[in-house]
Amino acid sequence: MYRKLILLAVLVTLCLIPFGAWVRLTDAGLGCPDWPGCYGKLTPTHAIDEISRAVDVQGGEHGPVSLGKAWREMAHRYVASALGFLLLIIAGWAVARRESLKQSPALALVIVGLVILQGMFGKWTVTLLLKPAIVTGHLIGGMTLLALLTWLALRQFGGTVASRTGSWLSPVDPEPLARLLPYARIGLVLLAVQIVLGGWVSTNYAALACTDLPTCQGSWWPSMKMSEGFHIARELGKTATGEGLSLQALTAIHWVHRLGAVVITLWIAGLAWATVRAGALRLGLGLVGGLVLQVVLGLSNVWFGLPLPVAVAHNASAGLLLMVIVVLNFRANLAARIQ
What we know:
Structural class: mainly alpha
Number of strands: 0
Largest sheet: none
Shape: globular
Radius of gyration: 22 Å
Helix content: 55-70%
Order of helices and strands: HHHHHHHHHHHH
């Protein structure tokens, strides 16, 4: 049952990440401009009068508030809250049964701390009016939560100190995979950086700053303002001085993410080849599949003008690729300990 609860938490987290992207990409992030309720009410239905007045003030449902947007925002909060309660149960179980589980409850407790921080980021996302740094931090927290839950799940299937050589988590000959550990760690760091850059693109609405491939605005090195685009403490769509964010700043954000995509593609492709040669065929193929899916979705966002299903799927596939990289790190670490 403990294993099943952890696997359920992994699945819910994996679904919650694209759900949050869907809320953001449909401009529903301020569908309920307060927290944790909606105009102080439990559901948007209870706040229908307040929502109707807000729609009248903004001149129609094209603005940030509408009943549909309020429901999308609150549905995301409901699922996130349910996940939080699930993680509390898992942590409580880990503490109460630590002797029979033969595992330290530290990771489960860290995860609870992280989900509390995620709740605060969710609050700040609304109360600070979608500041890019806060929204990006919320995405980073979600991906970190997914990675830690994946690691916790793997520990339930032979990942303890007493792991046996030849289990499904470790190859019969662990030495080749153990040698990949430093490269797998670098791959995890590079992917984390690329996810942060992708989040910065999304939260600044810079995905269509470049609409051609492989060049950007017809140039290999377009006009850009790096310092303006990557200034952290500022309002959405504004510079640090309060002026409108320029196209050159949005271009810088988009272009750096593209360069990061090239780097991570080359690294993971090489890592996948090395993983296959180390005897972990399915894991290597998983890396290839996750990488190809992510690249195709990223290119499709540009080719087809950021269609909503593709943009949401791009977030989900990033989570899947992160999980595969975490599995590789876990297996390589396990192989190194077995030696």
